[in-house]
Amino acid sequence: MQFRQQALAKLQSPEELDLPVRLARPQGWLVLSVAVIAMAAASVWAVTGSVSSTVSAPAILTHGQGSYVLQSPVAGQVTAVLAKQGTRLPANSPVLKVRTGQGDTVVRTLDAGRVTALAASVGQIIRTGANVAAVEKVARAKDPLYATVYVPAESAAGIPAHASVDLTVQSVPSEEYGVLHGEVKSVDRSAQSPQQIAAFLGDSQLGEEFTKKGRPVAVTVELEKSSATKSGYAWSSADGPPFELTSMTLATGSIRLADRRPVDWLLP
Predict the structure, then answer these.
(1) Cα–Cα distance between 105 and 74 in angstroms, integer?
(2) Tens of pLDDT along 99-151?
(3) Is 178 left (phi over 0), alpha (psi -120 to 50) or beta?
(4) Taking the C-alpha atoms of 187, 190, 191 and 197 in order, what is their torsion angle to the nearest 10 degrees?
(5) Which of 43, 75, 79, 136 lies most in the core, judged by the most C-beta atoms within 10 Å?
(6) Can you tell me the distance from the alpha carbon of 15 to that of 23, in angstroms, rounded to the nearest whole number?
(7) Are strands 103-108 and 131-137 parallel, antiparallel or unpaired?
(8) pTM listed for this prediction
């Protein structure tokens, strides 16, 4: 009965048309304004801003001209090893002496270079065509080092010309001496097979190692030079390591990819 009387009283009372209607509180308008401003700023950034990204991949320091595997032209017993690992030899230099049924034969280098590995020892019996040494092609002692970064093929297209590269060198403590600086010199757009990598580096194990996750693309990086460091190259630290770098040193390369607008991720 009480509710019925209240309902009748409500119907009989005049409408409060003369009172203002409050649509929102001031706090609500403030929150709405902030949200609109934030959305507008995000839209502008998505169109005009840019986001940088990097790709990391295994790398190796070389003199950039590749290597070759020296093979024995004869079968027989090795009687002398005439070269030392790490030495730089002119073309046609003696490496091994092999005794055959027709006499002694000297195995010589094909091109000038540095002996990076010796696969034969005194007393060993070798066959014709056996791998006896790996020689990195380098004509002069002062030839600069380059880095070859083996980047996944799907990431190669995003590497711009002259992209900056940071190299963490395996033999250099990065927490103490930092990273090595470089710049992309060229990108080989064809994917490399284990055999191609092995032929360039003169090492079949590295060919297998660099293709574990698929056939990569070789990116040649020119190292930034510096007369202020012992190594002759620029590092993120002031002095870099207190020793010179050698070829065939492993590293990890971090290449900066082309900047992209955030809106590009939303477009097909």
Answers:
(1) 8
(2) 999 999 999 999 999 998 899 999 999 999 999 999 998 877 788 999 999 99
(3) left
(4) -70
(5) 136
(6) 18
(7) unpaired
(8) 0.70
**Residue position matching structure tokens 């801003």:** 49
Both structure tokens of 223: 């190292």
**Type of residue found at 132:** V
